[in-house]
Design goal:
Layout lengths: L4 E5 L3 E6 L6 E7 L7 E5 L7 E3 L5 E2 L12 E4 L2 E3 L3 H9 L5 E5 L13 H10 L1 E7 L3 E3 L3 E5 L2 E6 L4 E8 L7 E7 L2 H8 L5 E3 H9 L12 E4 L2 E2 L10 H14 L6 E8 L3 H17 L2 E3 L7 H7 L11 E5 L3 E7 L19 H18 L7 E13 L8 E12 L2 E10 L2 E14 L1
Parallel strand pairs: 4-9, 11-19, 14-19, 16-17
Antiparallel strand pairs: 1-10, 2-3, 3-9, 4-5, 6-7, 7-8, 11-20, 12-13, 13-19, 14-15, 17-18, 21-22, 22-24, 23-26, 24-25, 25-26
Helix pairs in contact: 1-2, 1-5, 5-6
Length: 438
């Protein structure tokens, strides 16, 4: 699923049905979203239409025997959206990075056949379009593992995106199954999206006593008894059960917010352990086992999606490189800059304070690119240490700013910044900033 540009929907589309656990009628609508906004759920049935980004930060912890079994739940403040995994799998399976998902209940409508293919069909009809911004992958550079009892998940380096899964049920109809796929859009559409959810007949009464599967039926799930499948008709694939587990895992991996480049393997895993593994992957970014992959540069339209500054105070023209600890940006100073009119007329040079401000804005791009709900955040400049201005910057100069994150704690950061013109160092220093709520 390696792509160079972000993608969103070409138009809005909707799906009506019932929630598999609540049994209530619900409509889920999918719509386009700006670059770098990610997938955001909106509860249109509540006052103010509160939104919840599809991020691991906002997952309500699931547990096999707890209040949220067999599903993944997003929660923010007092708002919840349950059973988001099939929606997310459909979106990321089609390579959609940015979308607004409106729901009019606390659980999206479940596709009538228990797979996510009905979602895929309406999304495909709505159209998937490329956006003018690069997509950034999360690259697995060292193995990351998670073990809990018999459950095992791991991610290892791989040139592409492969998902492998092993299940082993005592029920002889399911038994032990293994499947492994190199995930592309075509593979997802043909091999994964049609795989249906399933349940063991012996578990049904227990789930109903917990108030779950009120919308479950033989139409939207495969029911497996001790003597075989209760539903009429054949399986769509001989290994349909493990394929659906891959589908669920894809939906949960979407909570990272960026596509993965690596090989993910799971054994006997469900939503609870999937979520814990996603948390482990997120933490592995700080440890250096997972890194932000190389991408094309961010132009001014993409920069304006991240930074709040506007003319005449937006002092970044392009971001050339970005990972979790380093950023490189460019500012081209032309003779038409507004400050040259009054700053040393007849001998124009760029004010040193604006060089530092441009450096800080490049660093702010790195900070805001790392946070959720960045539209609600600002970066405040807090201090400068050891700043030196070594050569004047003149009209026509293109300044390359390179910043490295030295320290980040509770929203406060320290960066080392350097500015170069034609390879020569013109300014450097250490900058302190803080991410704050607007």
């Amino acid at each position: 699923m390696s792509r160079s540009h972000q993608r969103t929907l070409g138009s809005k589309c909707s799906y009506k049905g019932i929630g598999i656990h609540t049994g209530r009628q619900a409509t889920v609508s999918f719509g386009p979203a700006p670059v770098d906004s990610g997938i955001v759920f909106v509860r249109v049935d509540l006052p103010g239409s509160p939104s919840i980004p599809a991020s691991i930060t906002h997952v309500k912890q699931v547990a096999s025997g707890g209040d949220y079994p067999r599903r993944t739940t997003l929660a923010l403040n007092d708002v919840e959206i349950n059973t988001v995994e099939h929606v997310l799998a459909a979106l990321v399976g089609l390579g959609i990075d940015n979308a607004v998902v409106e729901v009019d209940s606390d659980e999206p409508a479940e596709p009538t056949d228990g797979s996510c293919k009905p979602f895929v069909d309406i999304l495909t009809e709505a159209g998937v379009v490329e956006q003018d911004a690069p997509v950034q992958h999360l690259e697995i550079v060292e193995p990351v593992t998670f073990d809990e009892g018999e459950v095992h998940l791991s991610a290892s380096p791989h040139d592409g995106f492969r998902v492998s899964f092993t299940i082993d049920y005592e029920n002889p109809t399911i038994g032990a199954q293994f499947a492994s796929f190199e995930l592309t859009e075509k593979t997802f559409l043909e091999e994964i999206a049609p795989a249906r959810t399933f349940a063991l007949k012996r578990d049904v009464e227990g789930l109903k006593k917990k108030g779950l599967i009120k919308g479950g039926s033989l139409e939207n799930a495969i029911l497996v008894g001790e003597d075989g499948i209760v539903n009429k008709g054949d399986l769509r694939f001989p290994d349909e059960f493990v394929r659906h587990k891959i589908l669920d895992l894809l939906g949960d991996l979407a909570l990272l917010g960026k596509p993965i480049r690596g090989h993910v393997y799971a054994s006997k895993s469900g939503h609870a352990s999937n979520v814990k593994f996603v948390e482990r992957l997120r933490d592995s970014i700080r440890e250096g086992k997972v890194k932000f992959g190389e991408t094309t540069s961010w132009d001014i339209s993409a920069i304006e999606q991240i930074l709040p500054h506007r003319y005449p105070f937006l002092l970044v023209d392009r971001i050339l490189e970005l990972d979790d600890r380093r950023v490189v940006g460019i500012k081209n100073f032309t003779v038409n800059e507004w400050f040259f009119v009054g700053h040393f007329p007849g001998h124009p040079i760029v004010p040193a304070v604006l060089i530092i401000e441009a450096m800080a804005q490049v660093g702010g791009f790195l900070l805001l690119s790392r946070v959720d709900e960045r539209e609600k955040k600002l970066v405040y400049f807090m201090g400068i240490d050891d700043a030196r201005f070594r050569k004047p910057v003149r009209p026509g100069d293109s300044v390359r700013f390179e910043l490295e994150l030295l320290k980040l704690r509770r929203g406060t950061c320290k960066m080392r910044g350097s500015a170069y013109v034609r390879g020569e160092l013109v300014a450097d220093g250490e900058l302190w900033s803080q991410v704050v709520e607007k």
